[in-house]
Amino acid sequence: MNSRAPILFAMIVIPMLAGCRKSTQASGGMAPTITNNERVTINYLAYAGASPRRWDVVALMGPSPTLPSNSLYLKRVIALPGETLSLSPTGIVVNGAVLNMPSAVSNLYCPPERLSYSASMIRVSFPYIVPPRHYFVVGDNWTNSLDSRFYGAVPGTNIIGRVVGK
């Protein structure tokens, strides 16, 4: 018997049992972290016994009535249920304090006044209080991401998994 067969079997079966599957990102809203058409691994069991945490990249279904509910979207959680969020020239402000962003995304933030599109396109007014059991999510590509700035916080029930390794 081939001595590599058990290892190969484990490499295939364990991720399936752990709820991980590959998916392809169909937009540039998470660039440069996840590029258009990049394949990512999503752990669909990540939130079975836990809640999303700030900075998690999550997979969610139809976050807004204006978007197809059967499509998968990838976004980063920046505010949790009950938190008060503002976007300032100096950064993301939650409950009155500027967040320390992880080094991988610290240079991606773009304050609202520097965005290329009109501020009138943003449908959420700040400060914004995240409703209970909802999460405020954004794409890492702040200048080209349809996210909670436009459709508000997403219900936790729409978050179906966590992107692994991003």
Short description:
The protein is mainly beta and 166 residues long. It has helices at 5-17, 148-151; strands at residues 20-24, 39-43, 57-61, 72-79, 84-88, 91-94, 97-98, 128-129, 134-138, 154-155, 159-163.
Q: What does this protein look like?
A:
10% of the residues lie in helices and 29% in strands. The protein contains two helices and eleven strands. Mean pLDDT is 81; it is low at 8-18. β5 and β6 (91-94) form a beta hairpin. With 166 residues, the protein is mainly beta. The chain has a single domain (22-163), classed as Umud Fragment, subunit A (Ribbon), CATH 2.10.109. It has a seven-stranded antiparallel β-sheet with strand order 1-2-11-3-4-9-10.
Main features:
mainly beta; Umud Fragment, subunit A; 166 residues; seven-stranded antiparallel sheet; globular; single chain; four-stranded antiparallel sheet
